[in-house]
Design goal:
Elements: E1 30-33, E2 40-45, E3 48-51, H1 52-57, H2 68-71, H3 77-80, H4 83-97, H5 109-115, E4 116-118, E5 123-125, E6 133-136, H6 140-150, E7 167-169, E8 175-177, E9 182-183, E10 186-189, E11 198-201, E12 205-206, E13 209-215, E14 234-241, E15 244-245, H7 246-252, E16 266-268, E17 273-274, H8 275-278, E18 282-283, E19 304-305, E20 308-314, E21 321-327, H9 335-343, E22 354-356, H10 371-374, E23 382-383, E24 389-390, E25 398-407, E26 410-422
Parallel strand pairs: 6-22, 8-16, 9-26
Antiparallel strand pairs: 1-2, 1-5, 2-3, 3-4, 6-7, 10-11, 12-15, 13-14, 13-22, 14-16, 14-17, 18-19, 20-21, 20-25, 23-24, 25-26
Bound molecules: calcium ion.
Calcium ion binds near residues 208, 210, 242, 358 and 359.
Length: about 425
């Protein structure tokens, strides 16, 4: 299947800076707010937001399966209800309008002035109303590292890990968009030396370098989605920082898994990059023959994606420190398998559900996606450029994640998810 908007030879009449995450081959979707105007749906090219409400009012979305109310909206959910076919047509339309070969819009400067808004004037809002959030645990290196830290290398992977895309149901209400600060959480924890638990602020606050995918409306309760069908139900991806309080988590997680150690915040990047835009960057995943997976988890074709991922700590008034460099291709389980597994029991998915990848760690030191691994449970502090060290995240630190794919001279990226940690409230 050829997706017209992905043509690597396309250029735009809008200036796109070199190394921008947002060339004409990306055209992601998000929610913008400009001054006192109501939020609306937008796309992005270079350093400009594309106001889809304005585009629709001016008649440029005619003959597409969308009405003005789909764009005059504070979330993408209404637009996403049009499914894969609708959103693909919309992205193709944008690709045509902003193509260097096209003059329809370009020749009408008074329209261009209404449609293109410099990013400096735009506030990005939480793009999707997420009703359900699932977080997987699908990076083998991460699962292995955590297994080594809390058990031993011989038994690092649990017996189920290569049979099941392990996951848990997370908390949707505390998913926040990049730029929103969080407060250091507090709660119950039991230090290794203590006999009884104590209450206090988390001292082991950590990030998790992840991606997240958002779903279209699924099938009725009782139905399943196969690995082959999965892509028809996946809208796009964003970067996810799945914040974790390791001390709270360590005491509470037996036997039902993460609870308050995870539910205080999860940060996402504001632009949803469509799966369509990421298609050119597909790569093969690891072989899954030892053990072989059950038939409902089998898939064909390249279903992993080459996405470079960086995680950075920036101390208050300090400079950025790159602490981890990973890649989404290191995943053991891909999104098709995750979605097939999620629905195999008949569980339904809704428009706007969020599914986290799980921490993505690469095979070498320097490629780890959490401070738990980077500092090896606090035994190997990370040396910062200002002379301080980090075992976990300090108050005043900003954690930044960036990601992009690149091939054939085309770079399709996510921008960033950036969150500052404030002292306990
Ligand atoms: Ca996680």
């Amino acid at each position: 299947m050829t997706i017209a908007a992905n043509d690597p030879t396309f250029t735009s009449w809008v200036n796109v800076p070199e190394n921008s995450d947002f060339p004409i081959q990306n055209l992601p979707f998000g929610i913008i707010k400009v001054e006192n105007e109501a939020p609306r749906v937008a796309s992005r090219i270079g350093d400009y937001a594309i106001d889809l409400k304005a585009l629709s009012v001016l008649g440029y979305t005619e003959n597409l399966p969308f009405s003005l109310s789909d764009f005059d909206a504070s979330t993408l959910n209404s637009m996403m209800m049009k499914g894969k076919d609708g959103t693909r047509k919309l992205r193709d339309r944008l690709s045509k309008l902003f193509n260097a070969e096209s003059v329809d819009l370009k020749s009408k400067q008074h329209h261009v002035d209404q449609v293109l808004i410099p990013m400096a004037q735009v506030e990005m809002l939480m793009p999707i109303d997420v009703r359900d959030y699932t977080d997987f645990y699908s990076s083998e290196q991460h699962a292995y590292n955590v297994g080594c830290l809390f058990r031993d290398p011989e038994n690092a992977l649990m017996p189920n890990w290569k049979h099941i895309p392990v996951g848990y149901h997370g908390r949707a209400s505390s998913i926040i968009v990049s730029g929103q600060d969080i407060y250091r959480p507090k709660g119950q924890k039991k230090p290794p030396t203590a006999d009884v638990p104590i209450f206090g602020q988390s001292n082991l606050l950590d990030f998790e370098l992840e991606t997240v995918f958002f779903t279209f409306q699924g099938k009725p309760l009782g139905d399943t989605i196969s690995t082959k069908e999965a892509e028809d139900y996946i809208f796009g991806m964003a970067l996810l920082n799945d914040w974790s309080a390791r001390d709270i988590q360590g005491w509470e997680y037996v036997p039902l898994g993460p609870f308050l150690g995870k539910s205080f915040a999860s940060s996402v990047s504001p632009w949803i990059v469509t799966i369509d835009a990421l298609e050119p960057f597909r790569v093969a995943g690891p072989t899954q023959d030892n053990p072989k997976v059950l038939p409902y988890l089998e898939y064909s074709g390249n279903k992993h994606i080459d996405i470079n991922l960086d995680v950075i700590i920036q101390p208050e008034n300090g400079e950025e420190n790159l602490v981890g460099k990973s890649n989404y291709r290191h995943m053991y389980w891909n999104m098709n398998q995750q979605l097939a597994h999620h629905t195999v029991n008949g569980c339904n998915i809704n428009c706007g559900d969020a599914m986290g990848s799980g921490t993505i760690s690469g095979p070498e030191i320097g490629m780890y996606g959490s401070m738990l691994e980077i500092s090896w449970k606090g035994t190997k502090p990370f040396q910062m450029s200002d002379g301080t060290e980090r075992k976990f995240i300090n108050d005043g630190d900003t954690v930044i994640m960036r990601g992009y794919s690149k091939k054939d001279g085309v770079r399709v990226g996510f921008g960033e998810v950036s969150t500052k940690v404030l002292p306990t409230k």
